Amino acid sequence: MATRNPFVNDPASAEVWELGYVAGFAEPETDHFLPFSPDLLDVYQRGEQVGRDDRRRLPPGDEPNEEGHSQWAEFGEELLEFGFLHALGEGLVHLGIKAGGLITLLFDVVQIPSDGSMKPLEPDYEGPVDQEGETYVVVCGRTDHAMQPDGVVTDDGYFVGPERQSFREAATDRRGHQHVEAIVVRCSTADSTCGPIWPLQ
User: Fold this and answer.
1) How far apart are the C-alpha atoms of 6 and 13, rounded to whole Å?
2) Could you please report the per-residue DSSP string of 25-93?
């Protein structure tokens, strides 16, 4: 019987469940997390468990190889057809970086033009992608990064990717990062805000 997404009538939860499913299927022995609110984190973890279960039910020899892993991860990202973004809000705590610390981290690493008055993105923020004055950057709050060819590893071990002018480019960077915990951060000089965001259908 084919696996079905139990959140088909709730597009935001359906996307999060699918991301969990893909992460669980691709790496069934790894605990993943993304910085969602508690409700969405539960949805993600439920999807992750179903993905793990499906992967473990594969007959011996049918496990995807590394190329298959990459294709599953890419499939997961392509599930997100977006025109709007919304803030991840309180899920920042899962990054291990406080909201103010995230802004300081980005200003230390990337050259975002600002008068220094950036504030955290409101938890209920929603808005269109790729607006004037927006910069997108991948950040990973894990502290076990080796040096990276693209991006910067801080003294604390955090990873910060290159500045991008489009969300799609940053999402591609995130897909290429070795940790599924990496997130995309939006910084806007138009409204002087900076915070983790996610696509919303």
Assistant:
1) 9
2) HH-TTS-------HHHHHHHHHHHHHHHHHHHTSPTT-S--HHHHHHHHHHHHHT---SEEEE-GGGGG
Q: What are phi and psi of 172, to 5 degrees?
A: -65, -40
Among the listed residues 197, 83, 75, 96, the one whose alpha carbon sits nearest the alpha carbon of residue 140: 96
- Whole-structure pTM value: 0.62
Average confidence (pLDDT) over 109-123: 73
Kindly state the tokens that stand for 193: 């805000």
Q: Which two tokens stand for residue 72?
A: 């599953």
pLDDT of residue 132: 92
Instruction: Write the DSSP symbol of residue 94.
Output: G
Which residue's entry shows tokens 């610390």?
Answer: 101
pLDDT tens per residue across span 6-45? 888 887 787 788 778 878 877 888 887 766 778 888 998 9
Exposure of 76 by Cβ count < 10 A (0-12 exposed, 13-18 middle, 19+ buried)?
Answer: buried
Neighbours of 14 (CB within 10 A): 18
How do beta strands 119-120 and 193-200 pair?
parallel
Q: Taken in order 35, 177, 167, 114, is the CA torsion positive or negative? A: positive
CA torsion sign for 188, 190, 192, 196 is negative
Find the range with the poorest average confidence among 20-24, 46-50, 53-57, 86-90: 86-90
Residue 97 has what pLDDT?
A: 60
What pLDDT does 76 receive? 47
